[in-house]
Amino acid sequence: MSAPHLKIENLSISIEDKEIVKGFNLEIKGGEIHAIMGPNGTGKSTLASALMGHPKYEITKGTVTFNGEDLLEMEVDERAKAGLFLAMQYPSEVTGVTNADFLRSAINARREEGDEISLMKFIRTLDKQMGMLEMDESFAQRYLNEGFSGGEKKRNEILQLLMLEPKLAILDEIDSGLDIDALKVVAKGFNEMRGEEFSGLIITHYQRLLNYIKPDKVHVMMQGRIVKSGGPELAQRLEAEGYDWVKEELGIEDETVGQEQQA
Ligand SMILES: Nc1ncnc2c1ncn2[C@@H]1O[C@H](COP(=O)(O)OP(=O)(O)O)[C@@H](O)[C@H]1O
Ligand SMILES: [Mg+2]
Question: Alpha helix (H) ranges present in the chain?
Answer without folding.
Answer: 44-52, 76-81, 99-109, 119-132, 150-164, 180-192, 232-241, 244-250
